[in-house]
Structure formats: C-alpha cells, structure tokens
C-alpha cells in the first residue's frame, strides 16, 4: 500500500509499506477514505517535537476491510471513525472514562504503526477503539465533520469540558487553529452566552463566528489581555480554553481568567510555566490534557449527523495522497486552517 512517510524535519514523502493484516483476533484493518494533517503534525514537520521515522498521521475515517475472529461490534463494510489513539476498553483508565490513557494505548502514525495518511491501517482492539457510523448516504460536508471527530472536534470539546463551560457564561478561547475553533464550537454547544475568540486572521475569525463566537480580539499578549478585560468590565472570562501550548498563550489565558474560573488546556506544551501564585491567590484552576476522544465521539456523533454542529468547517484546504506535502506546507505557511487528504473511495 501507499502511505505518507516522515523522514525528518520538512521531509514528507509518499512511499510503499506492507499491506496491514490481522495479527490478533481483536484486530481490524480499515481502508482509509479521508485523512488530514494535525497541528501536532506540524511540530514534527518542523523538527520541534520528536517523531519516529516512518508512517505519520493519526486522524482518519474509513471502511472496515477485515476483522479478527473476536471482533463482534463491527462488520466488513462498516464506515468507522478512528480516535487518534487506540484503546483496550477494559483497563482502569478506559473503564473510568480516560481511554487516551489506556495502559495498552498506542498512536496511529508513529513508532512504525500505520498512519491515517495512508491507504490502510491496522487497528488493535477494534471493538473498543473504532466507532461505527450508522449506515447512510452522507454528503461531503458530513464526511468532513465525521473526520473532524477523530481528533480536533473532540480536543476542542475537551478544552471546553475541562474549563467547565456552563450555560450563560462569558468564555474566551486562546488560539485560532482548528482546535481553538473547535473549542469555540464546543463552548457554543455547551450553552456559553458570550464567546470571545482571540484571532488575528480574518478567515479564522469568520469560522469562529460561524461556530458561535460573539466577540473577536485581534491583539496578542498584554494588549489582548487588556482588550478582554475591557470587554468583561475588568472581571475576565468565566472560563478560558487554551488551545496553543506556548508560554505566551498560557500567560494570556491566565491574564484573562476571572477569579474562580478554570483554564481548560489542550495545547501541546512548549516552554510553558504555570503561574502558581495566580492559581492560588485568584483561585484559578487548571485542567485539560490529551482528549479522551473515544469517550466523546459517541456523544458528538448524533449532533454531526443531525446537522446541529458542523466541525468539518475547519477543513479549508484539501488535496490527495500524491500531494500530501502540499497539505503540510499549506498549514505550515498558515494558508490553511486544517488540510484534508482524500485517500480512498
């Protein structure tokens, strides 16, 4: 099969890999329809974060092509969503709602595992990992939103849930990438009355408003903090979603957080130092982490299928497997919010 291969910083190619096969009775093989490039893939692409040489890509939807003898909840031909980490469904983290911390978890598209930017993927623990989509004739917009559920929509949702967003609140989102925009959508879905999106990019501002943002703050750093405080009569936001992971973004999040609020952080941290004195003396909480996507997908799926939410709007650039490097470059150069890669049919 053909698959995207990571060869080091700025080295993305398409090459040949062995076709995946059933190795254990709990496995499945999925033929990929749609994959995409994640913001975290850019850290690898730029050489900032480590990534094993070989397959890359952890977000995909596809058709079940083979199942192991112990797989009971899936059948060949099913359309499925794969969360970005597989999970066993039986260990204590899985049973307590934290499948992303499964003791048997592994990441698609790293450490030699088949990636979602390839034609097929070997999936361990298929029953526990894959989410079956009800049979139907779905349009392209819906398919894009199903793909968004594999990671970005769930990660944005985790930011909002971790920040304890409640109906009627004034909240703020730091970061206008696909995750930040998904956090805007999640906050709106959870009933926030006023949603302040921090964004300097007109295209991303437009998506933020489509997702429910009521206010846009284009400044950064201290100027952004001052603007948000001005919008909130000096009090700050009842909940803050931090969706970037840099020191500046975290400083901004705490600078705009109201007394007693919580920061819901999902950005991969780079040079972040938490302001412990602020946390203690302003009673400002911190929560978040790697999104338990497998927990959230069944909750969000009905809203996607009904059209209540359309997280696929974050895909504003698309290409095919032959041109997957273009997908990385478009995001790296901020010409795209999130790149879709069409792989199969």
In short:
This protein has helices spanning about 40-45, 90-95, 125-130, 140-150, 150-160, 180-190, 200-210, 220-230, 245-255, 275-280, 295-305, 325-330; strands at about 1-5, 10-15, 30-35, 55, 60-65, 80, 85, 105, 120-125, 130, 170-175, 195-200, 215, 235-240, 255-265, 285-290, 315-320, 340. With about 350 residues, the chain is α/β, with parallel strands linked by helices. The two termini are about 15 Å apart.
SSE order and pairing:
Elements: E1 2-6, E2 12-16, E3 28-36, H1 39-45, E4 54-55, E5 60-67, E6 79-82, E7 85-86, H2 92-95, E8 106-107, E9 120-123, H3 126-129, E10 131-132, H4 140-148, H5 152-162, E11 170-174, H6 178-189, E12 194-198, H7 202-211, E13 215-217, H8 221-231, E14 237-242, H9 247-255, E15 257-265, H10 276-281, E16 285-288, H11 293-306, E17 315-320, H12 324-332, E18 338-342
Parallel strand pairs: 11-12, 11-14, 12-13, 14-15, 15-16, 17-18
Antiparallel strand pairs: 1-2, 1-4, 3-5, 3-9, 3-18, 5-6, 6-10, 7-8
Helix pairs in contact: 5-6, 5-11, 6-7, 8-9
């Amino acid at each position: 099969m053909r698959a995207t291969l990571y060869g080091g910083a700025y080295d993305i190619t398409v090459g040949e890999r062995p076709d995946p096969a059933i190795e254990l009775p709990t496995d499945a093989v999925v033929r990929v329809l749609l994959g995409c490039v994640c913001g975290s893939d850019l850290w690898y692409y730029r050489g900032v974060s480590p990534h094993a040489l070989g397959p890359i890509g952890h977000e995909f939807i596809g058709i079940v092509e083979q199942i192991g003898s112990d797989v009971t909840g899936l059948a060949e031909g099913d359309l499925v969503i794969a969360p970005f980490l597989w999970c066993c469904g039986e260990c204590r983290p899985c049973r307590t709602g934290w499948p992303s911390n499964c003791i048997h978890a592994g990441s698609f598209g790293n450490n030699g595992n088949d990636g979602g930017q390839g034609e097929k993927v070997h999936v361990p623990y298929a029953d526990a990992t894959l989410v079956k989509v009800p049979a139907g004739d779905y349009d392209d917009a819906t398919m894009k939103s199903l793909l968004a559920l594999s990671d970005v929509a769930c990660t944005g949702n985790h930011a909002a849930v971790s920040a304890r967003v409640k109906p009627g609140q004034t909240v703020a989102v730091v970061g206008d990438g696909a995750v930040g925009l998904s956090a805007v959508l999640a906050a709106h879905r959870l009933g926030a009355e006023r949603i302040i999106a921090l964004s300097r990019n007109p295209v991303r501002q437009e998506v933020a408003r489509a997702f429910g943002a009521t206010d846009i703050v284009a400044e950064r750093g201290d100027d952004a903090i001052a603007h948000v405080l001005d919008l909130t009569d000096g009090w700050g936001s009842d909940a803050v979603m931090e969706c970037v992971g840099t020191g500046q973004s975290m400083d901004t999040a705490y600078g705009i957080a109201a007394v007693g609020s919580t920061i819901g952080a999902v950005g991969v941290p780079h040079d972040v130092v938490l302001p412990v004195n602020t946390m203690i003396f302003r009673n400002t909480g911190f929560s978040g982490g790697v999104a338990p996507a497998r927990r959230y997908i069944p909750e969000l799926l009905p809203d996607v299928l009904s059209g209540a939410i359309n997280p696929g709007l974050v895909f504003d650039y698309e290409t095919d497997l032959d041109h997957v490097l273009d997908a990385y470059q478009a995001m790296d150069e901020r010409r795209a919010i999130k790149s879709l890669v069409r792989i199969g049919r």
